[in-house]
Design brief:
Elements (H helix, E strand, L loop, with lengths): L3 E5 L9 E5 L9 H10 L1 H9 L13 E5 L7 E5 L10 H18 L4 E4 L11 H12 L8 E6 L2 H14 L2
Parallel strand pairs: 1-6, 2-4, 2-5, 5-6
Antiparallel strand pairs: 3-4
Length: about 170
């Protein structure tokens, strides 16, 4: 996994081509990582999100991803993805895998060389942290993504430790 880097820090400061936003289906800002990214990016990000076509109020269904310009962030793009609410869907693992895959494919399609992810669905969406880390790392370590520098940007020491431990057990 020499192209995957687990770091502790603020994703809004990541010096990468694209950062991933753990968005809600409306893509109009919210709490947690989503709120932090929208605050750091400024109003230009909200305007970009409003340009994304909504179907019945949903701009990005669970497991999918959309890309916008990044406003005032150091990144060029924000890739918005919606992870599953763990206890509200019958197949959270499949949807979490899809959120990571969709984001990575959008990054490649837009010629990104680097991307930073938060721990998708691990906040108010209630995904068990260790399980989410294992799902994410399995997807990110696929051969098709080896040309990307992939950063997993975690806000606190506890999450950082969980993800490092998951990385060690996934690749033993």
């Amino acid at each position: 996994m020499n192209n995957i880097f687990i770091v502790q820090g603020d994703i809004t400061k990541a010096q990468v081509d694209a950062i991933v936003n753990a968005a809600n289906p409306q893509m109009l800002g919210g709490g947690g990582v989503d709120g932090a990214i929208h605050r750091a990016a400024g109003p230009a990000l909200l305007e970009e999100c409003r340009k994304v076509k909504a179907v019945n109020g949903i701009r990005c269904p669970t497991g999918e991803a959309r890309i916008t310009a990044a406003g005032h962030l150091p990144a060029k793009y924000v890739i918005h993805t919606v992870g599953p609410v763990y206890h509200q869907v019958p197949n959270p693992k499949e949807l979490l895998q899809s959120a990571y895959l969709s984001s990575l494919h959008l990054a490649l399609k837009n010629h990104c060389r680097s991307i930073a992810f938060p721990a998708i669905s691990c906040g108010v969406y209630g995904y068990p942290h260790r399980e989410a880390a294992e799902v994410a790392l399995a997807v990110c370590s696929r051969e098709e993504f080896k040309q990307l520098e992939i950063y997993i940007c975690l806000a606190d020491q506890q999450m950082f430790t969980i993800w490092l431990d998951a990385e060690n057990s996934v690749h033993r």
